[in-house]
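ARCHIVE CARD
Drawer: 12
Card no.: 0347
Subject: one protein chain, sequence and derived structure
Cross-reference: see card 0346
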Amino acid sequence: MRVVERLLFGMINSIVEWYRPGGREDATRLADDVIAVALDGLRVPAPAAR
């Protein structure tokens, strides 16, 4: 779990390095993408129905 914490914090903290308001990336879309990676990216897929 410690690795997950570090990866998430690294992803979020690095945004300030490259994000520029008014630039190519839309802030709302960026926030949605971060949430998707942080929450959905950690989800364990359900077993396929047979």
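Annotation on reverse: The chain is about 60% helix and 0% strand. The chain has a mean pLDDT of 87.
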